[in-house]
Amino acid sequence: MSEALSPGRLPEHASAGDKEQTRAATTPLTPLADAAIAAAKTYARQALAPETLRAYATDWRAFIAWCRAAGCEALPAAPAAVAAYLAACAPGYSRAALERRLAAIGHQHRLRELP
User: Would you list the domain boundaries of the chain?
Assistant: First the structure.
């Protein structure tokens, strides 16, 4: 017989670690913690040089165009789609350029708090 669970509840047989992670994930943050997280996000967004941001924007547009042509979603991008994109780009780009394109995709995901 299965247990009926309300949101945020774990079955009785869940480990203490599982219960602690769920409690931490559902505990509301204080205004001080919210402000600190917002400040950290702002610093992270400003951590890249303007030239890097321009290059990432160009790489991101190229990835979006490839996704449209391939019929897959750019956000959140499936790992297989990212791998296929990089493989498609590989013949025309250096390893450094491919790494930057991958970094640009990761950057867009982090900005949107996606996996």
Answer: 12-47, 49-111
